[in-house]
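Continuing from the previous page...

OK, I double-checked the sequence for Planctomycete cytochrome C against my notes and this is the correct one:
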Amino acid sequence: MKRISSQLINENRSRWFLASLAMIAVCLLCSSDAKAAEKPTEEQLRFFETKIRPLLLNSCVDCHSEDLAESDLRLDNLAGMLHGGKAGPALIPGKPASSLIITAIGYQDGTLQMPPDEKLPKSAIADLKRWVEMGAPHPESDQITDTIKKSGVDFEAGRQHWAFQPVQKPEIPQLTATSEEWVKNPIDAFILKSLENQQLQPLAPADKRTLIRRATFDLTGLPPKPEEIDAFLADDSPEAFSTVVNRLLDSPHYGERWGRHWLDVARYADSNGLDENVAHGNAWRYRDYVIESLNNDKPYDQFLQEQLAGDLLNAVEPETDYHLKNERLIATGFLSLGPKVLAEVDSIKMEMDIIDEQLDTVGRSLMGLTLGCARCHDHKFDPVAQADYYAMAGILKSTKTMESFKIVAKWNENEIASPDQQAQKEAQQAKIEAKKTEITGLVASATESLKQRLAPDGKLSEKPETQFTAEEQTQLKTLREEQKNLEANLPVLPTAMSVKEGEAEDIQIHIRGSHLTLGDTVARGFPQVIEIPVEYKIPDAQSGRLELANWLTNKEHPLMPRVMVNRIWRWHFGEGIVTTPDNFGLQGSKPTHPQLLDWLAATFIEKGYSLKEMHRLMMLSSTYQMSSEYDETTAERDPGNVYYWRFNARRLEAESIRDAVLAVAETLDREMGGNLLNVDNRAFVFNHESKENVDYDFGRRSIYLPVIRNHLHPVFSLFDYADASVLNGDRQTSTVATQALFLMNSPFLEEQTTAYANWLIAQESEVPARTNLLYVKSYGRLATTEEQERVQNFLAEFPDVWKSDHPDAEESAVTAATWQALCHAVLAANEFTYLR
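Thanks. Re-ran it with the corrected sequence; updated structure tokens here:
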């Protein structure tokens, strides 16, 4: 482009233009071969020489020629335009709408406008478009016919990547007779074989107190009760731990614990975030659906089908019970929960941004594929073409996620009324209509009477009702008040964030992801790299979500079962077999135990996609039941515990820390389900003074507390809670001073440890017994002799210190304050917040 006077401005604009070019480079040729026209006619060459070459010389080649080819892009010859530079081709002959140079000169995109200082005249833009439509005739056309190659994806090579290979159940490794004593199930055989190959040995089993605390937090997110620990210790049978695991899986708290893990990847939140942080007033219905589904051990394939196409399952099963129908509608909230820019003025861009967020979520959460990277171009690493992205985008474009794109935009909600609720509303509506009829009849008869009274010379006024008799006016007023009361009490039927079918359509590839520059239309479908031996043809009049759900849950799908068993493994063992649980692509981590991963995936399918069966399998292995103690010699050879020679000690997540505090203090409200958000649906969660209106003052489990995007509950934000704006299947664990300060100084800990102390005092009168109860509830173990002595010393010294500030306190208050301080110290220690 022609240089402008200021070198600084020129450099900045150049960088900006080149960055824009870089984003679009690969995608320009993804859908068609870019080949120069056949030998141009004399008339076409004359058009080029008289109209196009002078335009390029005057406006472009100063910056894009042999002397100065910014970003290696030359526009002084045809090869340069077709091949492009670092950014790739800038021209696709015959397709002006897909050519970057036309987008740039037309100022079609607010971020890409060339020349940057002044738009070309309309006649020049028209000439360039016409030239590209002709096929870009050029004197050099016959010289470069074979030099232009289609940019594309090598799917066959991509299918060689381990994650795209079919799941095949491997043989269980053979071990020596001595080794087999350690093996409780096939998981151990794979782990032990790997350890032996590294000349490593697993640690001894964890003690029973450690094991029940580990298992109880793992499956319920809560500490074990003292009586549960005692029962396990007293059970000497070989099935003792199996009994514990089965009891925990039957607990309703299991769904609350593992539902939270799913909500992380479903990017659950009770507010929108972003520009318009309005309340997701009905999101809680989806949360409760997840918890109930997991407690009922709903098969995972059915779980996914309902979330992708629950409304369509209802359509093909019209006789379904209304409870299941409503459940399926609620399930599709999975597609609707993401953050949205609700004040975006460009409604088309808003819709495509929402679709992009949905695709990214579906890809990473269910398949471990970063599909969103193919919005602007073929995926740079994985075998996913830009055409694949828009094939799936067409499915979601044909789905109605939004009720309205008018600012502030509204997401779609479906009615989920019961037959009784529907009947009540219809009955009330009938009463309203009857009342309207009665009013109409009264007005008509009163008007007729008025005409007769005024005849033959009287005239009706503009408001005849003012001429009605006093009795008629009183009657009319009464009837209208009755109508108003009926309307005020008209039942509001419940709704849920969910999607439904929209207008079915295939969409065009968006050049560099922009709806302003469109390429070829792509038929709705699925990523080509994944081969399923069943063809799922999408009906012309339907979105294709049901076919997507069936394709994804087909038993031959290579990714879905692997991704899910890896997620389960990650939350039991601290790290996944694939340590990047949301990315199984070429840039993701390779599995540390690939045969074990495939054995688990195949077993998952064989067990009917039962999550609870996978929990049992993993937790009843010796691998899970190992000690977490540190062995210096082994650690030197495997410092990252890649081969699982010990159990990974880890800190509790934010929710479990808070819930555990409430549980030991006996203040936890174990009521399940329902809505705690005190802000109306679609209302702003901040008032005009930017003060949050949300109430968190509940003793319920953390999964039920509102999740407000951009403003998390303090405990959540301190202890590495998931970012609710994006899916995340792998929380990080930070160690920062504010965490310790919170545990030592927060009003929440002070309040709860006060309740904890009062409970302990009421339970046990003797100090040793009370101390043991404190340690068992908090740590799952008895206090050691040394700890008993330290407690005795503390109880002897602390009262004098406290009474110096409270000289008039009664003895009972001194005792309560002393034990509160002791409880606080115990809960603030690492042993309370870590699992061994």
